[in-house]
Specification:
- This protein is mainly alpha-helical and 70 residues long.
- It has four helices and no strands.
- It is elongated and about 55 Å long.
- It starts with a helix and ends with a helix.
């Protein structure tokens, strides 16, 4: 999934290098990439929420903050 995203990003770069209208291209990139990122976070990355929460609570960041705020 990330590889396909990277391929799309590179295709925009190629189109820009080939002289495509930069304003039109920027609008397309903003819409396409913004939509992809929003959907990706909502759909795919949400599966990591519990893992991240567990590792933050009592994890490295919490321990480091505890050192400074005792």
């Amino acid at each position: 999934m990330h590889e396909r995203f990277k391929e799309r990003a590179h295709s925009y770069l190629s189109r820009f290098a080939n002289g495509e209208d930069p304003i039109k291209l920027a609008r397309e990139v903003r819409g396409d990439m913004g939509l992809w990122l929003t959907n990706h976070i909502k759909r795919d990355d949400k599966h990591y929420v519990n893992y991240v929460k567990r590792n933050i609570e009592g994890g490295f960041v919490t321990r480091m903050l505890g050192m400074f705020f005792r």
